[in-house]
Design a protein that fits this description.
Elements: E1 2-8, H1 19-26, E2 30-34, H2 41-48, E3 52-54, H3 65-82, E4 85-90, H4 99-110, E5 115-120, H5 125-133, E6 142-146, H6 147-152, E7 162-166, H7 187-195, E8 203-208, E9 218-223, H8 227-230, E10 239-242, H9 254-261
Parallel strand pairs: 1-4, 1-5, 2-3, 2-4, 6-7
Antiparallel strand pairs: 7-10, 8-9, 8-10
GO molecular function, one term: methyltransferase activity
Protein name: Tetrapyrrole methylase domain-containing protein
Pfam families: TP_methylase (PF00590)
Length: 262
């Protein structure tokens, strides 16, 4: 039985990988890196397992996203067929907004290859944004959602929750654009969706957590009404944060509240 390890590489640098991840990589037959060379990853890999290859360059700017993933999938299958214990290092956490990770198990099943696919966590953008915002996600409640899914299915939004809206760089866009996403993302769709739930003066923030040891947190402040202007600052790694509103008094479960205070 072959083994495929999908390893979270962290966000700011390879030092954010867990000790478990380092151990898994060290024992692998071969290592693929996807999502760009995380700061410091070259030095770590050359030290613990020099049998590695970066496949990020196959994810082309201004190409059809589906075609990009088809090419990456082919590279993975080639490596899986050749090596019995393959590790794939992905940016951040393998289960937080990483389409590539989500596709690998299905890809293996379709290829009829007998292999165990195991994910190993890494520090994600969500982790770093909680620090950036000094936010406990349980205190007011928090929702993570993809911008395109939010709009496509017209999902209900509970404004008493905090929202982190991912992939605002590619609203309604099929082509990959990680160089100038502000020119292609269709922000009006998101603005019209948010207007159904919030007043135009409700605050929001465009967040970009540090992605290297030398970069700084970037926050663009504004309101729902300013969304199109705010998204002129969007990058491929930006997330939109919408803070919670206090729920109205009529939503309070009085019986439950009385039990809590007695």
């Amino acid at each position: 039985m072959k083994k495929i390890n999908i390893v979270g590489g962290g966000l700011r640098s390879a030092n954010q990988m867990t000790l478990e991840a380092i151990s898994i990589i060290r024992s692998s037959s071969f290592v693929l890196v996807w999502g760009g060379l995380i700061e410091g990853i070259t030095e770590i890999l050359n030290d613990i397992n020099p049998n590695w290859k970066d496949i990020s360059s196959f994810y082309l700017n201004n190409a059809d996203d589906t075609v990009n993933y088809q090419i990456l999938n082919k590279k993975v299958i080639e490596a899986v067929r050749e090596f019995d214990n393959l590790s794939i290092i992905v940016y951040g956490h393998p289960k937080v907004g990483v389409t590539f990770s989500q596709n690998i198990q299905e890809l293996i099943n379709l290829s009829k290859i007998e292999a165990d696919v195991i994910c190993y966590p890494g520090i994600s953008s969500f982790d770093t944004m909680l620090i950036d915002k000094s936010l406990d996600p349980l205190e007011e409640g928090t929702c993570l959602v993809d911008a395109n899914r939010l709009i496509l299915y017209d999902l209900n939004m509970d404004t008493s929750l905090n929202y982190f809206i991912y992939h605002v760089c590619s609203i309604g866009v099929r082509q990959t654009d990680f160089v100038s996403p502000h020119e292609t993302t269709k922000s009006l769709y998101l603005k019209e969706k948010l207007k159904k739930h919030y007043s135009l003066d409700h605050p929001l923030e465009l967040l970009l957590s540090p992605t290297s040891n030398n970069s700084l947190l970037k926050i663009t402040h504004g309101t729902i009404n300013d969304l199109e202007e705010i998204l002129k600052n969007v990058s491929f790694s930006s997330t939109l944060f919408i803070p919670a509103k206090l729920p109205s008094i009529d939503r309070v479960n009085v019986e439950f509240y009385n039990d809590l205070i007695t």
